[in-house]
Design brief:
Elements (H helix, E strand, L loop, with lengths): L4 E3 L4 E7 L6 H11 L11 E8 L2 E18 L2 E17 L4 E5 L1 H15 L10 H10 L2 E8 L8 E8 L14 E11 L2 E8 L3 E5 L5 E3 H12 L15
Antiparallel strand pairs: 1-12, 2-6, 2-11, 3-4, 4-5, 5-6, 7-8, 7-9, 9-10, 10-11
């Protein structure tokens, strides 16, 4: 498996996009390896592990030890026992963007850890109304959209589901003052048609065929489809050798 490929073992993958861009990825890798906290199971120190860098792409994991209690019976008496588990998230950093996927708890610590190592402000991205509005126009078909109205409106939040070309055809939103919370629909990607769900808090969920190899280039293309004013040019996917 190449460093810029993600094998999706299930039927979907949920990504978080980060607003921070790192221009020199190799330098970030060196800073993480030299100055970043490394995950240690024995001492239960949260940190980075299994990091690698190649062709201006860095990939790795950030893990933490999380305690939890289980309630059970001992000799007819209800008691609680404390256990511990490892929670992890995986991240990929390129010169264009940073993505993470996995548990949400380690993701929050990941941002703080990268900020401490690099000296940069690291935070999750937020998609603006214009981004989601442009995306719905670029979809082959809208399946679901959640829109929000101002607080003084009778309908403050509405979820539309079905087969739509444009949600504005439906008279439930203030046409001049409303927001888009999330959007799901079908898009034509370099890897074929995919159902995508995008939330304004920087989340992207892709529904795929089990076992699909998702490339970083395709994820970057999808992010550009959301954030850029002009539709990105189609990617030239490598041809299989004969």
């Amino acid at each position: 498996m190449l460093i810029n490929e993600i094998e999706i073992t299930g039927s979907s993958i949920s990504l978080k996009c980060w607003a921070t861009k790192f221009e020199k990825v190799a330098a970030i890798f060196e800073q993480v390896m030299q100055n970043g906290d490394q995950f240690d199971l024995d001492s239960e120190i949260p940190g980075f592990h299994d990091c690698d860098c190649e062709n201006s792409v860095m990939r790795g994991f950030y893990s933490v030890i999380v305690p939890f209690e289980i309630e059970h019976l001992i000799d007819g008496i209800t008691t609680k026992t404390l256990f511990k588990r490892i929670e992890s998230c995986e991240f990929i950093i390129s010169e264009k963007a940073m993505y993470s996927f996995g548990k949400s708890g380690p993701m929050k610590l990941l941002g703080a850890a990268l900020a401490a190592v690099t000296g940069q402000h690291v935070e999750l991205a937020e998609f603006e109304f214009s981004h989601l509005n442009n995306l719905q126009e670029r979809m082959t078909r809208i399946k679901t959209i959640v829109v929000t109205n101002p607080k003084e409106k009778e309908v403050r939040r509405a979820r539309l589901a079905g087969h739509m070309e444009s949600y504005t055809e439906y008279n439930i939103v203030d046409p001049r003052n409303h927001g888009i919370e999330s959007l799901a629909g079908l898009i034509d990607t370099p890897l074929g048609p995919l159902t995508i769900t995008v939330g304004k808090k920087g989340s992207i969920r892709l529904n795929v065929k089990k076992g699909l190899i998702m490339t970083l280039e395709c994820i970057d293309w999808i992010l550009a489809l959301i954030t850029e004013e002009k539709r990105p040019e189609p990617l030239k996917m490598p041809q299989a050798p004969f």
